[in-house]
Amino acid sequence: MKIAVWHNLPSGGGKRALYDHVRGLVARGHTVESWCPPTADQTYLPLGEFIPEHVRPFDWTPAAPQKLSSKLTNLRLDFLRRIDALDRHCRLCAGEINRGGFNLLFANTSLYQAVSSVGRYVSLPKVVYLQEPVRELYEAMPDPLWQALPPAASYLSPAYLRDYLRDVYRTQSLRVLMREEVRNARAFDRVLVNSFYSRESILRAYGIDARVCYLGVDTAKFVELNLPRENFVVGLGAFVKLKNVEFALRSVAAVPEARRPRLVWIGNAADPTYLEAMKQLAVALKVDFEPLVKIDDDELVRTLNRAALMIYCSRLEPFGFAPLEANACGLPVVAVAEGGVRETIVDGVNGLLVDSDPRAVAAAIMRLADDPQYARRLGQTARREVAEKWSVAASVERLEQRLSDALDGRHASDAKTAGV
Questions:
Q1: 296-333 burial by CB neighbour count: b if 16+ within 10 A, else e?
Q2: What is the DSSP code (8-state) at residue 228?
């Protein structure tokens, strides 16, 4: 197949998945080219190592802060400018793809909008790999987005009227985003997702039946190095609320102080305010906390090989690479049983699944510390499970089959429409 790829991905699990997919497709003999805007991270696992990558303009910059009166005069204007700019970028890319003799478009997730409009303009069979919808629109996180303003003592007070107008501005902007998300997602012939949990999320968000296409881990990179295990637990994920670093700190703090391990947390990005708050919380909880930001993969693998276990507590994570990367390094995982992790971590096989309660996590940490042979058996089984079920080669084979199915399905539909 000759495959056109579109993405607007930052560093992180989504970009790693695309990198592995592209590398695998090329190795299997497919011709692949990629399109993206400059907002995509091209320094992290660059696709240009394997294929031509075309960077096309995205003419939008955030507007300067405005007074409320100015915002209301130009209601939704800046927000719509961003949508329009991404749409213009997608039209440009789609035109080049349509003229490029490709068999199929393989689109991926986008910054600003989970699903871009590129599928609306490409005339080829088209598939999107959607890691997740814009979760804020469909989940509480931590407060329901669509709830009304709190009751006021006076609904005619200047303060309430100001807050009401701000809420109107915000709500209308989000409704536009939601409309565009649904419209864009429904333009594709197939939507692929990373887990059955994500399949349900897409059905709730867009009313679309997606197909599960599990991801895989690079078992040539994430390997067991047989290093001595040390008394620390590791967490992996950006320093943002959704990754739940606070929960991890409170879980480690629930371990008696005399036995308390160090918490090493590795993030590809950080919200400075949140990270500083976590450092202060660690001091208050008497947890030895070591945050690491943007370390290279070699250091990541060494850290996973030195840790006693991984703690995984991201909120409603749709799939989660981190537990499988840890497993590939022979490391057992203690994970909160929610989201897609319930499909990758099997309790008592490659880790332990626990309730969303710091005391439950602490009990699991102590259980593995008290029985190092059991922890080692979990780690060894985990490594074998990844090699057998969760390799990149297996994930690329699954993707190739899904893309072929989409291509065959479009051809069959076109033939039926033509009366053949």
A1: eeeebbebbbbbbbbbbbbbbbbbbbbbbbbbbbbbbb
A2: P
Tell whether 384 and 412 lie within a shared domain.
Answer: no
The separation between the first and the last C-alpha atoms of the chain, rounded to the nearest angstrom, is 24
Q: Nearest 5°: phi and psi at 325?
A: -65, -40
Domain tally for the chain?
2
Would residue 168 count as lying in a domain?
A: no
The count of residues in the chain is 420
Residues 6 or more apart in contact with residue 384 via CB below 8 angstroms: none
**Are 410 and 339 within one domain?**
no
Domain co-membership, 183 together with 251 = no
Question: What's the DSSP call for residue 236?
Answer: E
CATH code, domain carrying 343:
3.40.50.2000
Which residues have a Cβ under 8 Å from the Cβ of 49 and sit 6 or more positions away?
23
291 lies in the same domain as 397: no
Give the residue among 352, 279, 269 at the shortest CA–CA distance from 309: 352
142: preceding bond cis by omega (within 30 degrees): yes
* Residue-level pLDDT at 419: 52
This prediction's pTM: 0.89
Contact 349, 389 (CB under 8 A): no
Q: In terms of C-beta distances under 8 Å and separation of at least 24 residues, what long-range contacts does 163-172 make, across chains too?
A: 165/68, 165/72, 166/68, 169/71, 169/72, 169/75, 169/76, 171/146, 172/75, 172/76
Comparing CA positions, the residue from 39, 54, 168 lying closest to residue 100 is 54
The answer to whether residue 114 is domain-embedded is: yes
Residue 148, domain member (yes or no): no
Residue 409 lies in a domain: yes
Range of the domain at 87: 2-142+177-216+393-417
Question: What confidence tens digit (pLDDT) does each residue in 328-384 have?
Answer: 999 999 999 999 999 999 999 999 999 999 999 999 999 999 999 999 999 999 999
